[in-house]
């Protein structure tokens, strides 16, 4: 049953007509006297005289007196000729209308004040209710903040955030070692078939990998820069070799575990070429690609107007390269083709997909229905394909052994793999 709202008795008594009128008189005595009381008394007196003249002394009232020889010829004049004339010309209907109008105005004023009081009371109640709700909201927010701090602490226990190629390569190495030591599946979802395939050409990542800030390479020679870029390339190659070694190891052990690698298609598929499309997103109109010579003692070119994350340097033995960007794209494409070929020759299952990845994964996934307790491990690289290595600029990646997260990422990996396989199958309707 719907509950009826009953206002308090005190409030109902306060809203009485006479009570409000009395309050108005107390608050505004001068206005009440000038605008209501004096006009009402004047109208009532005028009405009384008019009533007396018309009904009690009709003959005198209806006689037509005038001024003769400068004198008023009414021998029994009331008060004075002026007052007498004023009363003669008064209209009874007008007097009645004026009196009624004054009372109507008074009623309207009292009703308006009553409505204003009700609104004020309602607003006060709303304010009290808002204060109460605000207080409850503040308490809830404080409780939520406490909960979020607690949850954040638990998340940080399960997820190790990583930034930069050094931390990332160390995380991938841990995943590969976990797969080898526990006999887990090693699953890789990556835009490039080379581990961190584009990073050695990007000034920002080369500097970070060397423990420097990009501006600290401002006065570096091309030879010095080449040594730092080669160090990053060497560390990434070491990770690739570990991955290949795990594949060979699992095959020699006769393990049911396998190495699956999903990467962008190195060949055109219909009207699209997935890998070149990805490179087109990386090397957009904001990017500057330069060449340098690994053995030269000349300083790197000074390009203060170009942000370091948009600056790419590719080594070249030739003195002149007409189009450094096309030169780098060709080199990356050749590396993609060669890396896929090498993995396939080692028995690694390589699945090619035709869409840029918004996420990249390296997973040590325990086998299903295998007796014993096996822990999974996952490196998740965040970001869109438009960034250089498919990573966001701030939160680059995280490492986790949480079984729920690992299971979710494993399912995501197989979704991409199965989607790619479904898109390459041909379905032929049986001929009857």
UniProtKB/TrEMBL annotation:
<feature type="transmembrane region" description="Helical">
    <location>
        <begin position="92"/>
        <end position="110"/>
    </location>
</feature>
<keyword id="KW-1133">Transmembrane helix</keyword>
<keyword id="KW-0812">Transmembrane</keyword>
<protein>
    <submittedName>
        <fullName>Uncharacterized protein</fullName>
    </submittedName>
</protein>
<keyword id="KW-0472">Membrane</keyword>
<feature type="transmembrane region" description="Helical">
    <location>
        <begin position="31"/>
        <end position="53"/>
    </location>
</feature>
